Amino acid sequence: MSKDKDNIIPFPGMKKFDTSVDEDSINKANKELLMQKEEVEMIEHTIDEIAIDMIRHLVDIGMNINKKHFYGDLALVTEILRGMIYRDFGKEHLAHALIDKIIEVQYNEKGEVAPIINYGKVLTQADLPNQKLDCVAYGCTSGTIAAGYQSIYDKVNLAKPNTKVTTPITSAINALKKLNIKKISIFTPYTDEINQAVINYFKKENIEIVELSYFNIASDLDIGKVDSSYLFDVLVKKDLSQSDALFISCTALPALSIINDLEKKLGKLVLSSNQTLIWDTLKQINFKSKIVGYGELFNN
Asked: What CA–CA distance (Å, rounded) separates 132 from 129?
């Protein structure tokens, strides 16, 4: 057999490529790879620190981190956090597809961000509990104002059709109308910006706001740390002579246990977000048993 190189038949379409690369290009590529590696290492280090700090806080509030599902929940939280940081650094991550699918970023009438989570985009009816729900209580006063009651109602009924929905602010309105109260004083833990949204909501329902006082706390976590005894000492000094009732806003504020004593001291009706939410929920499901110890409202 001839070993002449002319016997080699080139494959159709094969071309010769210039494989020479200049040193500057190699250095640039190596530098880019190193930068990418350092960014990823920094992100992972940051996530580790946040996760460890979060676990410490959870342990401090008495959470059992030895339960099986804790680590699954933690894994999801850290993965979403990873996706958030990756996005800010211009990097792609699978978490983005999940986040963008179930979360719609909306804005309220004041132009404030009010994200809406729609689990119906990734869950089917088979994923949800099979039992029928008579009523769902949505537990955030300012959140209801920001998102809008109708939006919350629609999301609940997407998962659980024909379910009644109550919220702290709508239940408060229902309670005030039931008690025929037209003038109220308001106490909140919020900042002034959120307070104005609360005031405007009541005004649209033809409720006159006689007086507003507040703690000016920005963090929900810090609101939950307010001591109920301190809250009582603050509220018992309020002058309600021009008001028909006092409304204590925010489900994170520990007001429920002090309402009875406040009414006795102030000589006025006292309502709170959690109290009216419970009252309205029980009305929605036609609960008839008597509730005592949580204010005059439960006698109506």
From this structure: 8
